[in-house]
Specification:
This protein is an alpha/beta fold. The protein has helices at residues 31-38, 112-124, 134-141, 147-158, 162-172, 177-199, 210-232, 253-261, 304-308, 312-326, 388-404, 411-437, 441-459, 465-472, and strands at 8-12, 19-27, 39-45, 70-76, 85-92, 103-110, 127-129, 241-247, 279-285, 288-294, 330-336, 359-363. A 7-stranded mixed sheet has the order 3-4-5-6-2-1-7, covered by helices on one side. Strands 9-10-8-11-12 form a 5-stranded mixed sheet, with helices on both faces. Helix 6 (177-199) packs antiparallel against helix 13 and helix 7 (210-232) runs antiparallel to helix 12. The longest helix has 27 residues, at 411-437.
Length: 479
């Protein structure tokens, strides 16, 4: 869709059909000329005590137009309409308007033939009919709002219930934009320190230490994870909550899947890597339904299992498992109690917090003697049934908490941004791996740029024309 941003555009900004009032909205460089040709003011400003000087013969006298946002009552003179049409003019003359350019609105009678006459008169005075979403597109291109806020406008228009309206209004007010822009600023500052160090490599100046790099990247990783959870928190009508079993190979995930599903769906073997794809089953716990998903194992970095997983097949299995884990509403972290504690944080997740919907399960409890009070989660045995009731109770509560979490993003934003957030997360993970291995700062800087590109696609600072077409073509005319 081609947008000509130097044109002055006009459209009806009120709902279609008859009504007591209708709004005709104009935006663009020639708005003042259109107003002067069509509108004649009455005796004073709406909401202001001072009188408008030299009101007689306003058409053709630009000096009489207000230089600040204001409202004037008056009349529209329309070709083919013999009597003046009463109207209020709301005028924003500068870049502080919604679109960042001169904007005017005529509020007049809601008669459709009269509104059509106003549109024709505006077009005859130099405007053209706006395309869907063109007003909000101009606000986005002028930097008045970012792309998530533009989608918030669409969410307000499309809201079908009070909850959806609240989500859209929060997004329009910057509920996603503020943390997103703060995160991008931090990464840009970090990238600046790295590039300064590269520019002055011969000076041996410590612009940023490895410890500072690790701390900043870890904080960015947490912030991106929070953003991802905001985008994934949407629960469409009829969609079951996704509960995913995650853990290392041979951690007892498939046995636990069968026990929770109460039927033998997954293949169980002592050989690691038996689960090659993922399995799913609908499960109900005391009236609470969810979709249970079994995945292949994920080998943490710097472990002996890592070497045996470095084949194309194993990497593909892990990628499926990581994808399902990212898309989960609730994760069951399966930890094999027969194996020694692993130094990798990835294999020993922290105990779930109040805002975390993950559950820990210490599997194969029938094979060792455990001090139950020392564990942050239930010890379970899929063979004997030990601890399964406790796990089911925790799992049911986690599903209920996840299901009751309010949405933080309108549907179009969640759909558009999911892959970009995943790309940013993967880039930060690679940057952290480079820091841990003592790699060059130029490699870290390259990964930060990739992360910034992903976050920029969420905000719309990096955006292809086809994405803009897809977003704004869904708007109605006049928005």
């Amino acid at each position: 869709m081609a947008y000509h941003l130097l044109d002055t555009i006009v459209a009806v900004g009120s709902p279609p059909g008859g009504g007591a009032r209708a709004i005709v909205r104009l935006s663009g460089p020639s708005v003042a000329d259109c107003v002067e040709r069509l509108f004649s003011p009455n005796a004073g400003w709406l909401g202001h005590s001072e009188a408008l000087p030299q009101m007689a013969g306003w058409p053709g006298h630009s000096a009489a137009l207000p230089q600040r946002a204001t409202a004037v009552d008056g009349n529209l003179t329309l070709p083919g309409v013999h009597s003046p049409l009463p109207a209020d003019l709301y005028f924003w003359p500068n870049a502080r308007s919604y679109t960042g350019e001169p904007v005017a609105e005529f509020h007049t009678l809601g008669s459709r033939p009269l509104v059509d006459a106003v549109l024709r008169a505006a077009c005859a005075s130099g405007a053209r009919l706006a395309q869907p979403g063109e007003f909000t597109l101009r606000a986005f291109l002028a930097g008045r709002i970012d792309l998530t806020q533009a989608e918030g406008v669409l969410g307000v228009i499309d809201a079908a219930n009070p909850r959806q309206l609240d989500v859209a209004l929060d997004q329009l007010a910057g509920g996603l934009s503020r943390p997103l822009h703060a995160l991008r600023e931090r990464l840009i500052d970090l990238l600046g320190h790295l590039e300064a160090g590269l520019d002055f490599a011969d000076e041996e100046l410590p612009f940023v230490t490895p410890e500072q790099l690790r701390d900043e990247l870890s904080e960015a990783r947490r912030a991106i994870a929070d953003l991802g959870r905001q985008l994934q928190s949407r629960h469409r009508a009829g969609e079951l909550t996704r509960v995913v079993l995650v853990g290392r190979p041979n951690a007892g995930k498939s046995s636990l899947f069968n026990a929770l599903a109460r039927r033998a769906r997954a293949i169980v073997s002592h050989e690691p890597g038996t689960t090659r794809d993922y399995l799913s089953a609908a499960v109900e716990l005391a009236g609470v339904q969810f979709q249970l998903i079994d995945t292949g194992g994920i080998c943490p970095r710097d472990t002996p299992d890592r070497e045996s997983a470095d084949t194309t097949v194993e990497q593909a299995i892990e990628e499926v498992a990581r994808r399902e884990s990212r898309q989960a509403d609730v994760r069951i972290h399966c930890i094999d109690v027969t194996q020694p504690p692993n130094m990798s944080a990835e294999s020993q997740p922290a105990a779930p917090s109040a805002g975390n919907y993950d559950v820990l399960a210490y599997t194969k409890a029938d094979l060792v003697d455990l001090a139950e009070e020392e564990l942050p989660g239930p010890s379970v045995s899929s063979t004997t049934g030990q601890g399964l009731d406790a796990l089911r109770a925790r799992l049911r509560n986690a599903v209920l908490r996840a299901r009751s979490t309010p949405d933080h993003a309108v549907a179009s934003t969640a759909t558009r941004c999911g892959q970009s957030v995943q790309n940013a997360t993967a880039a930060i993970d690679r940057a952290l791996a480079v820091v841990d291995s003592g790699g060059g700062e130029e490699l870290i800087a390259a990964e930060i740029r990739v992360a910034l590109d992903g976050l920029g696609r969420v905000a719309g600072t990096v955006c292809a024309d086809d994405v803009l077409d897809r977003v704004f073509s869904r708007f109605c005319i006049g928005k």
